[in-house]
Amino acid sequence: MESHIQSNSRRYPSSLSISQSHRRENQPLHDTLFRDVQNYHFVNHHEHGERLHLDEKPIPICNTGIERGKPGTLIHDNRGSSVEKEVVSAKDCGSSMGETAYEETKNGISYRCDAEDPPAPEMKTSTHGSQVTWDSDDDPQNPKNYQWSMGRKWAALSIVASFTFVSPIASSMISPALKDISKDFGIKSEAEAQLTLSIFILAYAIGPLSVGPLSEMYGRVIVLQLFNLFFLVWNLACGFAQTSGQLMVFRFLSGLGGCAPLAIGGGLLSDCFLPEQRGKAISIYSLGPLLGPAIGPMLGGFVSQNTTWRWCFYSTTIFTAFVQGLGVFFLQETYEPLLLDRKRDRLCKETGNQALYTAFDNNDRRLSTKIKTAMKRPFKLLGTQPIVQVLSVYAAYLYGTMYLMISTFPILWVDRYGMSTNIGSLNFLSIGIGFFLGTQITAPINDALYRRFKARNNGVGKPEFRIPLMIPSSILIPTGIFWYGWSAQARLHWIMPNIGAALFSAGMVVSFQCMNTYIIDSYTRYAASGMAATTVLRSLAGFLFPLFAPAMYKGLDFGWGNSLLGFISLGMGVPAPLLLWVYGEKLRSVSQFAAG
What we know:
InterPro entries: MFS, MFS_dom, MFS_trans_sf. This protein is an alpha+beta fold. The protein has two domains: 1-120, no CATH class; 150-589, MFS general substrate transporter like domains (Growth Hormone, Chain: A, Up-down Bundle), CATH 1.20.1250. Helix content is 61%, strand content 7%. It is built from 18 helices and eleven strands. A four-stranded antiparallel beta sheet has the order 6-7-8-9, with no helix packed on it. The longest helix is centred in the last third of the chain and has 47 residues, at 527-573. The two termini are 18 Å apart.
């Protein structure tokens, strides 16, 4: 809302525009530059005052070279222009804060201003400013621009998707070999054997809390490469474990490293792809975390049957080393704040102007403050953002159900159907087929629906346009669970439980892709932290669900045991997309983290 301020018989034009938007974390309300949108001059302000109209965003200051003054004095801009500024009390502007504002005279026109200091990545620098931005809308250094070739974007996505694929394979590959591992290490308890499998997923719940925020501090590439190297080392160590305790510790440590692609991948997609391009990219990225756990046991069954269970770890280590090498040569940094920081540092060195800054700079640049702020962000998102909470809980339930099914497949096919380990592991193919078909269906439809809704909304896209596909998938998921459970209990032909498993996995991958894209579209800059928050809950579920699976099936059998899971899925899955469709935009509008 526009307003003109009267003071000392002066009328102040509305060209000095101030925005009231969400303040950047840990950034004080002083040392902020604002732009006169008519005269393109930056003015400085010391803390609160009265807000003017809301059409421009403020730009954080780094080192402007503007001197401070007391009320009633004149301040000169030591960058070369003689701008006259009269510092006045904020009380004169109607502020109840009693802090300092100022009045500026330029070309015979007086201005008075105040504001807050949220980041403004969209803001372009004026001819008199010192903000470093992209050179133009087609700057080839900007990963989102079409000038950053699609080849480079898909190369980055393919490498991250490969990392995201191999880590979940390692998480489940030993499932068919649990009996052999128990025999070698003298494990008597079935729960302890399941813990050997699921402790890897427990690490998935802890690692993203640091991986996602670290990637928002130091960039995607260095964090991804270092954590995957950590995974490679400890995954190899699992193959040399001599006790069950060693195997569990090494599995946990390898899981800490293997969680990086799951936590960072969403941020990379947000960096590279525009909203209307993300559906296809998400379909490829999401396939790894879901298809990996299904393919892993298939491979593990043949490996353990023909060699030894230790080669489950050796083989995944070899593949990880290959992808790691590709990443060293072809994976390029995509995180916009880091790229602009590098550009600022280069320009500071070339021009000698140390007053350059970016829209992402924080006044407090201490490493300890950055780390503290970044580490707290996933907890803040999970604790304060209803969007993240709803999607995280639903995703956690689906992920836990998937790992419960995967962990009990050997019980069903080997013990109940009497198949060998080799042949029984082939049934995991049904889960993989469901994931693949669901991905191929979702990718084109998701983007097509987004474009259609965007066109109907006068060309303005919204994250809520990702929601419609979640509704049919929320029906398909429990249908598959019921089909799988009752056909397994009745010991029908082996194709029948596999059809149910395929229906469940197809519905699950559709929901996952819609949820991941919705979070990335809603929290673009903090997409890595948003994905980290969801990964925490779903990984906890993936760890816990297999532990109670044997007891549940022993008491309820496959029929009623899976019916219980199906009814819960129906109760959670149907309301979630409807609530987000109705209230999602309102929730984003009051969020300090959400885009737009």
